[in-house]
Amino acid sequence: MVKWAWRKRVPLLDSVSPTDPDLLERLQSLAPDVICVSGFPWLLRPEILATARRVALNVHTSLLPHHRGPNPLLWVYYHNDDRTGVTVHQMNQRADAGLILAQQAFDLPRGFPIERLYSQTARIGADLLVQVLNDLETGTLKPQVQDESLSTYAPRVPQGVAMVNFGVWDVERVWHFMAGLCSRRREPLRDARQKEIHYRSVIGYTPGDCQQEPGTVAPTTFGWHLYCRNGSIQLGRKASKREENQ
Fold first, then answer.
1. What is the pLDDT along the chain (246 residues), one digit of tens a residue?
2. Which of 49, 65, 201, 244 could, after both became Cys, cross-link 151 (CB 3.0–4.6 A)?
3. Which CATH number is associated with domain 2-150?
4. CB within 8 A of 241, min separation 6: which ones?
5. Would you kindly state where each structural domain of the chain is located, as residue ranges?
6. Cα-atom radius of gyration of the chain, to the nearest Å?
7. Cα separations in angstroms, 225 against 164, 170, 182, 213
8. pTM of this structure
């Protein structure tokens, strides 16, 4: 982003804290009509939002009000969503809770790599943002209030925290979660000697192969078998070609 801004001669305002006083002063001096945010890790203070003379917008990578918060894509996989999407909404003082101004949904294939999902949501988010800005200019925006009864939260989860419920999830769901997230996040696993294993790829799964308790890991020639409630998942010691090319 920094290199892009330099090439395009776009002014770049750095901020390392949500309470950075310089950010407010610089925005007040610019007096922007619109503020557009995507992937910003903090809530903007009311006085910063107020510097936008018309509206402050956020691009969020979920179908709000589902998965409000800083890590929506992780929770899209965790909750086994078969559809996801992108939302552009008006910012307020609650995380991702403002009026919805545009939204686009799409099907999420099973085991879809999260890197490709990031790219897809970025393209859709850019198109939706342009649409909202055009509608704002023409006065054709149709804001929608979010249904609070449907809201869920998508917090950050540190690396190394176990998330898979091996006693409940079936093998296909475990495979979908682990294969989709493999380039960014790996489930902590241990073998029979309680030694941590370091898998690099999620090769596939075999329904019906339930030789051991769910969550058990057994070594094999290519890596490991991870046994689940109604099948097993094959984990590789090496990254797959797909993952190497990402």
1. 678 778 888 877 777 777 888 888 989 999 999 999 988 888 999 999 999 999 999 999 999 999 999 999 999 999 999 999 999 999 999 999 999 999 999 999 999 999 999 999 999 999 999 999 999 999 999 999 999 999 999 999 999 999 999 999 999 999 999 999 999 999 999 998 999 999 999 999 999 977 789 999 999 999 999 999 999 999 999 765 554 554
2. 65
3. 3.40.50.170
4. none
5. 2-150, 171-244
6. 21
7. 16, 15, 16, 12
8. 0.91
